[in-house]
Design goal:
5-stranded mixed sheet; Beta-Lactamase; 4 domains; elongated; single chain; alpha+beta; 12 helices
Length: 448
Amino acid sequence: MACKNYTFKLALSLFFIVIAAFTIGVLVMHGANVLIVIVLVIIEVAFIFSLFSLVNQTHRKITFFIQSIKNEDTSFNFPVNENDSTLKDLHKSLNELNVIVQNAIVQSRIKEQYFSEIIKNIDTGIIVLGVNGFVYEVNPAALRMLHLRVLTHLKQIQQVDMAFGTALSKLESNQKQTFTFHVDNEPEQIVVRCSIMHLKGEEVRLLSMQDIRGELERKELDSWVKLIRVMSHEIMNSLAPVTSIAGSLKGIWKEKLELDAAFSDDEDVRSTIDGLDVISERGRGLSQFVQNYRKLTKVPVPQLSLVSMQQLFDRLSILVSPMKADYGVAIQFYPLKKDFQVQIDEQMMVQVIVNLVKNAAEASSEQEEPLVEVVGRRLVDNQVEVLVVDNGDGISEEIAEEVFVPFFTTKSSGSGIGLSHSRQIMRAHGGTVNYRREKGKTVFAIVW
């Protein structure tokens, strides 16, 4: 509608200008009265000025609108109570277009925020790397994998591992490569996939990073759980009738002894009853043994609540205090620089940390000055880390990879499920348990 009115008014103005110019020319040629010619010239000038004003005003309005859109300012609103119908229609059209642009901007920002939240919360690390080495975008998962708090330039990755950082800048489009490196003496295994894009004429690399080590740990644990379930089922199915029959036979022979005194001096009968006692006793022991390992397959769902980290440490310090005398070890809980709350199942978390402290106390008890230290701190993206450090001899390299395997133990009285069960609990919290050796100290770290 605005276009029609504008076109009509423009055409009408041009028509009157042409007619007026033609009339002036005819009158001048025929020597008409000068006064009449002057009046027509004034009218001609008025028409030209009106046309110029219309075009100029429309140009200014549209220019203002375009500049505002460029500056992402859509807060303006053109008045629609104009006397000029053409200007009024133009304002209405620009206001309608402004609403469309506003909606488009809002939708774009919603999508941007939506995808930004997705990138923040996925487990895949994302890095957008420019050709000059500057990092344009990085998500918390990537920071966790690299053990960095901030990442703004490739040099920071090269400080973690020079070869890894350099290789990232040389990856080709659609190339996939596996990298293994150490961060704080802790092995990391990451698969990186590269996509090359061109944004505003600049080549950028979109790097997606997947933590293989964590995934392998989860799959390994799942495999052990399935194996234990099968073994427990088969053992219990075989054990139950054996124990039951042994108990029944023992009862029969005891009844015979009570009814017939002649059997009381029979050594074979006595041996048979003793043997049945042993079978029953070992059956109960084996049943209890299997029940202990079933813990790995039945980790309860954590009942999460907000817990003060300092209060948790105070409670733990009291719970482990008997170990100081039992193992002759000093156990030090370091106060937090600043208290904060964590979302955990307190009972389950206490179980994990107490188990780690007990292992550390046993490992360091033979030292001249045995010491166990417990430290808590916040990490990137509000993650929490608790370190249990001891000054024992540590775990030999030969068995370092076996410490989290169910049933594996170096203790004569150990069951081999403590660390495996702790890893199960931490997994239920969305975290993990790691082990590393550094400068004469053994460090177990739980992160969630």
